[in-house]
Structure formats: structure tokens, C-alpha cells
Amino acid sequence: MSRENSVVTSLAGRRKKNVTSDMQTDPTVHALMQCRGGCGACCIAPSISSAIPGMPGGKPAGVRCIQLTVDNRCAIFGDPRRPPVCSSLRANIEMCGNEASVDATRVHAMRVLVELERRTGHG
Ligand code: SF4
Ligand code: SF4
User: Which ligand is nearest to the Cα of residue 86, counting in written order?
Assistant: First the structure.
């Protein structure tokens, strides 16, 4: 299993168990990495079934979250209305990559997350 396949499998497992953690920016987590501000891939690629302010039915895979700002940041970060699932995925090298630019980070993460959706049947 490739490293990327491995992380996809791991993420899929976490998703099924609904384990909570933190997406979009907890710099201390998992020795992983800090979320790269302005990426936004994990607010676009995955489907979210829980209600999001402005998207009461959640969002389909590949659709930009309504709370994602034009500069690709969460408009409701730290707000209790932010869905718990948004805290269920932390930035990590395997998902987010180790790219030099935010655009390359987004490309990497989109590829990994689209594959995750495909494997978990959410996409
Ligand atoms: S994919 Fe990674 S770097 Fe991009 S917004 Fe999500 S946690 Fe941050
Ligand atoms: S609510 Fe915020 S963290 Fe969750 S998908 Fe939307 S923009 Fe991303």
C-alpha cells in the first residue's frame, strides 16, 4: 500500500468512527503540520452530512462550503455552529502534503480527499 493509500485508508477509518479532532488549524496536533491557511481543500472536496449555517442539509462532495471565505478560510472557525465533523480531521503531511505553495497544497489535498470520498462512497 502506498503512503497516500495508507493515509486515505486511515482517514476513511477515522471518518467511519466519527472520531473528533481538528481540521483547519490546530498547530499542535499529531506532530503533523499546521493547516496551510488559504488552502480550503477539506472544505470543498469532502461531503458533509451535518448542518452548516447556510447549508442546512450539509454539502455534497466537491461543493464549496458556504462558510469558506474568498480567501479560503473558515468564516465560522471557533463558532459553536461549526459542524463537529469540521473538527474531525487534522492537518497532516499525508493529507495536506509538504508543498512549497498553498496552491500546490490544495492540489495535493484535493487529490487525497477526492480519493477518500471515492473509497468511502460519499463522493
Ligand atoms: S487540506 Fe490541510 S492544509 Fe488544506 S485546509 Fe484542510 S487541513 Fe488545511
Ligand atoms: S464550516 Fe468551516 S471548516 Fe467546516 S467545511 Fe465549512 S468552511 Fe470548512
Answer: 2
Which residue's alpha carbon is nearest to atom 7 within ligand 1?
A: 91
3-state secondary structure of 121: coil
Beta bridge partners, 68, equal 74
- Residue whose Cα lies nearest atom 4 of ligand 1: it is 39
In order along its 123 residues, the chain shows pLDDT tens digits of: 444 455 554 455 444 443 333 445 544 444 468 899 999 999 999 999 999 999 999 999 999 999 999 999 999 999 999 999 998 878 999 999 999 999 999 999 999 999 988 998 654
